[in-house]
Amino acid sequence: MSRPYIFGNSIWITTTAFMSLFEDIEVRNYNSRNDSSDFDRRLCVDVVLDTKERVNHKLTAGGFKKLEQADTRLPRISIQLTGIEPDLERYSGKNVKRMLIKNFTGEAGNNNHSYDVQPFPMRMEFTVSLWSKYFEHYAQMLENIIPWFDPYVSVTVKERFLNLNREIKCELVNVGQSSIFEMEGPQTRLVRGDLQFVVETTAYKAMSENISEIIETIEVHVIDIISPISSDTISISAGPEDVVI
Fold first, then answer.
1. What is the tens place of the pLDDT at every residue in 150-189?
2. What's the CA gap between 127 and 77, in Å, rounded?
3. Quick one: which H or E segment has residue 69?
4. Nearest-angstrom CA–CA distance, 228 and 243
5. Which of 48, 112, 215, 218 gets the most CB atoms within 10 Å of its CB?
6. What is the CATH number of domain 10-93+118-206?
């Protein structure tokens, strides 16, 4: 049996859903420390899916073209997927069917439901790096992120290709110490800090009802030792009634 093709949608959707939690963050240039409404400028914080090394290279190299200047605009947030591991505490059984109710009316013969196979739970680890030229902007970004994760938030995504909502848990596990980097050129300082997150999500299996733990058919390739050129393939079949417990 050929390997079923699985549309790689879960990891991408989880990543984009996690990124959406940081897309509306801004920093402000305040005129007074005692009046939150007294500011003369607000800056939207760009969010990118990129590695820390690549972002640092772009900032160090600077930019002259419009696209390069957009890549080096500060402040900014970069997000990296740093690890994926099984989440066995949420594991509900291998190849176990689950019923997905799409429309339950309570009337006999009018209930619309479908089945699929229990998905595989996993934990995705993300590093969120905050980049800023000024420590005040860096502190504002931190304080507009940390209180919302208390210590986690949930974001809603669509369940596979079905019109069902599923919530995934995004937990803040660590806030790293801010770092100050010396850079060449007119910009002499870069403040950066890292936040570690864990997101509980699932990887979906092939939607097939023919999955079984029992090997029902095998093929054996038989070669004649006297005449190696001559060979034959035989099929050996068995059913559940042939299993001895």
1. 888 999 887 766 667 888 899 999 998 767 776 665 555 7
2. 10
3. helix 66-71
4. 35
5. 48
6. 3.30.2000.40
